[in-house]
Amino acid sequence: MVAMRRVLFIFLLLGSMDAGAQGTGGDDPVAVQILDHMSTVIGQLNSCGYTLEVSRDVDDPSLGLVKHFGVNKVFMMGPDKMLVDVRGDKGHRGYWYDGKNVTYYSYDENNYATVQAPGTTLETIDTMHRDYDIDFPASDFFYPKFTDDLIDNSDRIVFLGNTSVEGKECFHIFVMGKGMNIQLWIADDALNLPVKLSIAYTDQRYAPQYEATFSDWQINPELPAAIFDFVPPRSAVPIKLVSKTGK
């Protein structure tokens, strides 16, 4: 089955090379098909785990671009369970979502806050970003309309060929967007899972970049439901998260 799929991709690539090289405009059908297959695979996962290494450029008024790094370990199960462990410039933090509530915990300050959340992981990610400015890096890949959103918010999507990234053979896709250019490296194997994401914000000074690299993918692992329930340490101090609306 894998061999047949690779033959199909080779056939499609050969049929589209001339049009892409001549720059006729529009979205490359090979790139769109790769993105669609990746989204389909992710959408059919029952559970998963992965490590996400992130780097981002921050525009310092006196220094210019300063690069910051972070590492996220993520576990997801079904439509309503998520655990994210974050280590970076803002310290060591954790987020637990159990289908009803999201709990934030600071390992460094030993305090935590719990807020009521929507009934699905994706709705919760949207809500936490909207109300509390909390981002879950590279979560866009898990949205069913990922490809459609890229098409709607870009001028052109191009397949650039195959390359090796992080020791993996990858499909390289370039997305020319409005105010940003996005590059995606997607594994050239049966699963087509994301390997690397790069965003250049072309409408900002110095065109700062954001990069995210996926590793240690776990496909449909058996995860105990208990890991998504936050149990505060005895000495942990409860605090309150204040939303952008002040409520």
What distinguishing features does this structure have?
4 helices, 247 residues, outer membrane lipoprotein receptor (LolB), chain A, disordered N terminus, alpha+beta, 22% helix, twelve-stranded mixed beta sheet, single chain
Explain the overall architecture.
22% of the residues lie in helices and 42% in strands. With 247 residues, the chain is an alpha+beta fold. The protein has a single domain, classed as Clam (outer membrane lipoprotein receptor (LolB), chain A), CATH 2.50.20. A 12-stranded mixed beta sheet has the order 7-8-9-10-11-1-2-3-4-5-6-12, covered by helices on one side. The model is unreliable at 1-24 (pLDDT under 50).
Task: Report how far the terminal alpha carbons are from each other.
Answer: 54 Å
Number of strands: 12
- Quote the beta fraction: 35-45%
Shape: globular
Name the strands of the widest sheet in spatial order: 7-8-9-10-11-1-2-3-4-5-6-12
Low-confidence stretches: 1-24
Number of domains: 1
Overall mean pLDDT? 90
CATH architectural name: Clam
The first-level CATH class is given as Mainly Beta
Count of individual helical segments: 4
Query: SS-based structural class?
Result: alpha+beta
One letter per element, helices H and strands E, the order comes to HHEEEEEEHHEEEEEE
**Main beta-sheet annotation:** 12 strands, mixed
